[in-house]
Design a protein that fits this description.
The structure holds two protein chains of two kinds. By secondary structure, chain A is mostly helical. Chain A has five helices and no strands. Chain B has a domain at 579-617 and 620-719: Penicillin amidase (Acylase) alpha subunit, N-terminal domain (Orthogonal Bundle), CATH 1.10.1400. In chain B, 33% of the residues lie in helices and 20% in strands. The chains are: A mainly alpha, B alpha+beta.
Chain lengths: 113, 828
């Protein structure tokens, strides 16, 4: 239960911060998470939370406007199927968070040294 | 360790593509961001049901109700507030389009696209549009309503730009990785200058001179005449039918080497305008308008139809609006995004619309300069006058200067050099005129007389302004500046620039403009034809007029209907009949019959003639005869005018073919043995019948080869002519392409091969006790490609349907079920 709450809070942090500040906040939050969190698997945890946060925002967009039309049009512009854009949108924050959190021990070690 | 290195590399790569564009791909971070990126843009296309916005500069609150057609009804208490609000609303709907149009007019597209659009920018600036707009803007009376409106409008646009959320950024900016520029009031004038290039640039001089170089002056004068041989003028000439004033077309003479150089001297200029030249032939473009007096309408109210044709684009060139200032102004219709106010529309008393007059308002002068390679002075009346120089810098996306040009101007206008000569161009677009004042005043007119007064000092582009009022008056006047020239008054020549005696001497007085008020025939119509019969008024206004096929058709329809209804007016707008086909088909059939009776017919000709005879001469989608007729007409022009093929041009060059209007072919048909009929590529001597029948046969054979047997679907008109409405960036996914439409060359709703021109706004207004209006256009109110309002009107446009325009007097009068969004703008 505690893990679930942590996950929801982290995902919400990614979503709210992205909404307020922009996409670049994702690695910043992941960095902070990496510094605060303990135990194994925290990179995967952060990646999933970031993806979930952005998925939530994407769902909000879908409920508000013609996102699928936009996806179809942009897919045609970029010469890729529209679902690729959705996947990219979800993978992008996940990878950012995963890579950042993975590098946290190195960052910590460098800072300590 | 490997894992960490990989993570570092991937993170670096992600951050790089997140912040930077890679090739054509925009920065992925801000692009994919679901809150502030492209997905947010999609969500932002639906306006909130209720929204309150503080807007600096307002004196009082403004209520803007968006109806279910996407039309803003702006209720304000002053003009200043209304146009400030309009700027905000138009920017919200059409920001990218407004900036694109501005950049196109100002020659600043390379700041988006880099060097690949540099030449387009150079050409645009070399025409002096910005130079002219700056002169106009500087000459404005700062207290004039239109000037104040442009300022207020700009404030509204900029307020929107400054306060819009990241998610509101139009998708095109994201793809270009660009941000909107600050809107300057002069941009409204840039757009109007650009529109004047589209509508007010007359190339008859060049066409005639090029022809003169090939076949001599006498023939060129006949092929590109000052007066149309078929007259169905805008100002009724007393004849209930078209009149035919045919004269013999002189035989082709020897090439005129004296004009050969000068005919090509302006190649740079020709190149400069080539990028905006329609890809259509004259028979495939053009606007219509007509009005009917109460005595010829079913309900006893005046009716007016507006049908301006322009390049089709998404978003549409027009934006529909309704502006109410209680007790002062209540006007609805369409205007240009970027220019405050209604251009075509109606108020509670008057309705109006325009077609292009197409008069000759630009002239060329051959200048004598002090230094051919690097001139600083030009000769005028025996003295050296300094040349005005203007440095133009072209920037790329990063703000780096990628090119610099020095533009030269005489007192007449921009100078161009080619083939060792210098030409300057005088054009009414460069005059210190104030067209926004004219357009703005129209909404206040109480009757046709006031409306005509408001257009008295209108300058450019010359327009056939049609007006009807609730008292039953209908009137039309070709308005704008018609320059007066010295000597024979002709403008389709290149004059000696070394003397001011060759300059314009003034302008035609308004009383001499083509005009009609409440004519006995009970209707008025214009379709870009010669506006007035030379027998009535022989003032030079232009030459090489469009053939009057559309004018003949609408006049025939109006003559035949003495109880016109608004629905009749609507149907006329997409009428598939063609005066051109009615005139030419009998010639083809008669020629085929004569050849047959002479024993020279072949099976192919007989079959083609039989198919053409069966055709009802209507361009409807399921028709199969139109395609044969058009193929034959194309062959006919090619075979007849072989003398006009420029031998120095390669096949496929756009300016290789310089054919006269189709009405000249009809004139030539009065001389069946003219040497013009001879096909110089064959050893025998052909006459008219030979060319008509060989054209019909060749057209038929070509269709068999390309489309199969006539029984198949390949011959369907719907498969031949389609409308193609491109997005401003020509992105297919944002465009509406390959749309089946009714109509063909020279019908009231002409369509053509490329399908990129067409009816840009169709409107019918009934001036009854309460004004009622119906309209549509090929697009939608929103400029956002993913919006449901981006191209929602295309189905009605395609099918010739019109939507009723809502015209509430107060916010409370607007049916609540029709309101999709309510915006309250309050002073800050």
């Amino acid at each position: 239960m505690r893990t679930f709450v942590k996950f929801v809070l982290l995902a919400e942090a990614f979503a709210v911060a992205t909404y307020g500040l922009g996409w670049w906040i994702v690695p910043v939050i992941a960095l902070v998470w990496g510094l605060l969190a303990r135990g194994a698997g925290k990179a995967r945890f952060a990646a999933l939370a970031a993806t979930t946060g952005w998925a939530t925002l994407l769902l909000l967009d879908v409920s508000r406007g013609p996102v699928s039309v936009m996806a179809t049009q942009l897919g045609a512009v970029m010469n890729v199927p529209s679902f690729v854009l959705y996947i990219l949108t979800l993978i992008f924050p996940g990878l950012l968070a995963f890579c950042t959190t993975t590098l946290v021990p190195t960052v910590r070690k460098t800072a300590t040294a | 360790m490997t894992k960490k290195v990989a993570a570092a590399v991937v993170l670096a790569a992600l951050l790089f593509v997140g912040f930077h564009s890679v090739g054509p791909v925009p920065p992925m971070g801000s692009f994919l961001d679901p809150a502030n990126g492209v997905w947010g843009s999609a969500a932002a296309t639906n306006f909130p049901v209720i929204q309150d916005v503080a807007l600096a500069g307002l004196q009082s609150p403004v209520k803007v109700l968006i109806d279910d057609r996407g039309v803003p009804h702006v209720f304000a208490s002053s003009e200043d507030d209304a146009y400030r609000a309009l700027g905000y609303v138009e920017a919200r709907d059409r920001l990218f389009q407004m900036e694109t149009q501005t950049r196109a007019a100002a020659g600043r597209l390379s700041e988006w696209a880099g060097p690949k659009l540099l030449e387009t920018d150079r050409e645009s600036r070399s025409l002096g549009l910005v130079w002219g707009a700056e002169k106009k803007f500087a000459s404005y009376d700062k207290s004039s309503p239109a000037f104040k409106a442009m300022l207020a409008y700009a404030d509204g646009v900029n307020w929107y730009i400054d306060h819009m959320k990241a998610r509101d950024l139009p998708v095109e900016y994201r793809l270009l990785n660009a941000r909107p520029i600050k809107w300057e009031p002069i941009y409204s004038l840039y757009f109007l200058s650009r529109m004047s290039l589209t509508l007010g640039f007359n190339d008859a001089t060049l066409r005639r001179l090029k022809t003169q170089a090939l076949v001599g002056k006498a023939a060129a004068d006949a092929l590109f005449p000052v007066n149309s041989p078929i007259q169905q003028p805008i100002q009724p000439n007393g004849s209930s039918q078209p009149t035919y004033n045919f004269t013999a077309v002189p035989d082709p003479g020897p090439p005129d080497s004296t004009v050969l150089a000068v005919a090509h001297i302006d190649q740079a200029l020709a190149n400069a305008i080539a990028f905006r030249k329609p890809t259509e032939t004259a028979d495939a473009i053009g606007s219509n308008n007509w009005a009917v007096s109460p005595k010829r309408t079913a309900a006893g109210h005046a009716l007016l139809a507006g049908d301006p044709h322009l390049d089709l684009s998404l978003p549409s060139v027009w934006y529909e609006m309704h502006i109410v200032i209680p007790g002062k102004l209540d006007v609805a219709g369409v205007g240009f995004p970027g220019v405050p106010g209604v251009v075509i529309g109606f108020n509670r008393d008057v309705a109006w619309t325009f077609t292009n007059t197409g008069s000759d308002v630009n002239d060329y002068y051959q200048e004598t300069v002090d230094n051919e390679a690097n001139p600083s002075h030009y000769r005028l009346d025996g003295q050296w006058k300094p040349i005005e120089k203007r440095i133009e810098k072209y920037l790329d996306k990063n703000g780096t200067i990628i090119a610099t040009d020095t533009l030269l101007f005489s007192h007449r206008g921009p100078m161009h050099r080619d083939f060792g000569h210098w030409l300057s161009m005088r054009w009414t677009v460069y005059d210190k005129s104030h067209e926004p004042d004219n357009f703005m005043k129209l909404g206040y007119a109480k009757n046709a007389g006031e409306w005509l007064d408001d257009m008295r000092d209108y300058v450019v582009p010359t327009q056939n302004g049609l007006v009807a009022d609730r008292s039953g008056n209908i009137a039309i006047r070709s308005s704008g500046k018609f320059p007066l020239r010295p000597g024979d008054g002709r403008g389709d020549v290149i004059r000696d620039g070394s003397t001011s005696a060759n300059d314009w001497t003034g302008q035609l007085p308004v009383e001499k403009y083509p005009f009609s008020l409440n004519p006995p025939q009970g209707f008025l119509a214009s379709a870009n034809q010669q506006p007035v019969d030379a027998a009535v008024n022989n003032a030079y206004m232009g030459s090489d007029w469009y053939s009057p096929w559309r004018a003949m058709r609408i006049n025939a329809l109006l003559r035949a209907d003495s109880a016109v209804t608004p629905d009749d007016m609507r149907k006329f707008q997409t009428d598939p009949g063609s005066a051109r086909a009615e005139l030419f088909v009998p010639y083809f059939l008669a020629a085929a019959a004569r050849v047959d009776s002479g024993g020279h017919a072949n099976a192919e000709l007989a079959t083609a003639a039989a198919l053409l005879a069966k055709w009802d001469r209507r361009y409807v989608r399921d028709d199969k005869g139109a395609v044969l007729f058009e193929a034959a007409m194309s062959e006919l022009a090619t075979r007849t005018w072989d003398e006009l093929r420029d031998p120095r041009k390669k096949p496929g060059d756009a300016d290789r073919l310089n054919y006269p209007e189709a009405q000249i072919l009809v004139e030539l048909m009065q001389t069946p043995k003219s040497v013009w009929w001879d096909d110089r590529s064959t050893p025998q001597h052909e006459d008219m019948d030979d060319i008509l029948t060989s054209s019909l046969t060749a057209g038929y054979a070509g269709l068999l080869a390309s489309k199969g047997a006539p029984e198949g679907d390949g011959w369907l008109w719907s498969k031949t002519r389609r409308a193609n409405i491109y997005h401003l960036l020509r992105i297919p996914a944002f465009s509406a392409l390959d749309i089946s439409v009714q109509g063909g060359p020279s019908t009231l709703s002409p369509s053509s091969g490329a399908g990129t021109q067409g009816p840009s706004w169709r409107m019918v207004v009934e001036l009854g006790t309460e004004v009622r209006a119906w309209a549509t256009y090929p697009g939608g109110q929103s400029g956002a490609p993913s919006s449901s309002r981006y191209k929602d009107r295309i189905p009605s446009w395609t099918n010739g349907k019109l939507d009723q325009i809502l015209f509430p007097r107060t916010p409370a009068d607007l049916n609540r079920n029709r309101i999709v969004s309510s915006l309250t703008l309050t002073p800050r």
